[in-house]
Amino acid sequence: MNGDVFDTEGVLREQVVLPSERQVIGFAGDFVYTARKDDVDLFWLERFRR
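-> structure tokens emitted (50 positions)
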């Protein structure tokens, strides 16, 4: 997954690349939360700091 990060003025600040099996599910402060499903169908919540 590729994504662009814009500031409040609409200026491109960063580009983010995540492995395809991860899905962004939310943002809070300086964190982005992703979810993925493993080989035995368990879901994992992951938190990444900016």
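The chain is about 0% helix and 60% strand.
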